[in-house]
# Entry
Amino acid sequence: MNVSSVVNAHTHLEQSWLAEIRPGPEGLPFPTWIGRLIERGRALRASGLAEQTRWRAVERGIEALLAAGTTHMGDISPAGVSIEPLLDSGLAGVVYVELYGLDRQQWQPMFERARQLIEQYRPQERNGMCLGLTVHAPYSTHAEAFRAASAYCLREEVPLCIHAAESPYEHQALLEGKGPLYELYAGLSQRPLDPPGLTPIQYLESLGVLECRPLLIHVTQVSDEELDIIARTGCKVAHCPRSNQLLQCGRMPLEKMLARGIPVALGTDSLGSSPSLDVREEAEAAVQLHQGKIGAEVIHSLLGNYHVLL
# Structure
């Protein structure tokens, strides 16, 4: 462990204004929470206050990260708002520009804009902070987008991250083409997800995406066979136990990942699904969650695992 490093591997700073939708202690089903997230996003865009709200959210998020002693982090930036503030923040890590969409007319422009932002800011990378790309999730993004993004990342040596195997509803959507998560995104798209009949990890492998060794976010719903795939392909994982619990996603089999040598770091996720951006508090939650399976000292050692962002 690099004791001088405190790594928060997964944030959504532009969503720091969304604490109002954070579930209470009893939690909330993942598709219900996603629906609320989408509704609030639409309302913000309609208000005309989106840009200033996101800017202020990023500023407050960076302040919270620095107050928590964070040195390295991975942030998801759908609007590109967090790029410049993070380059100037003194924090190291990756700002992943996001794309998603089941329709080409949605994901293609987002991909082009993401590439433009990456190519614009890569010459300005500094303080150990660099640009990356994120394809949101297998249930929300078309296979062509995954192929195009992973080919670009391989060719240009751009870091990639993906939300994957986050909840049982994701498996239901991909394996069976049904369930509340499938129906939610089918209602948002003119072209519903064509279920591949594979689990999320199997699906990403079949598309060749895992050749990029992406950082996989959440990964609570995985079999031993899928863990073997993750280990064999050299992927990394971000563990967000508080968000996973509040969104009723399940417990990550962390002990099995570590036994296979899969690199894991802790992340807080956004303030819309987590009580704080303090990854040290995330570590304490992980100690309680994995009690009896993994020692506290092992979990605390994950705080220094900045290699997952490389």
User: Anything to note?
Assistant: The chain has a mean pLDDT of 96.
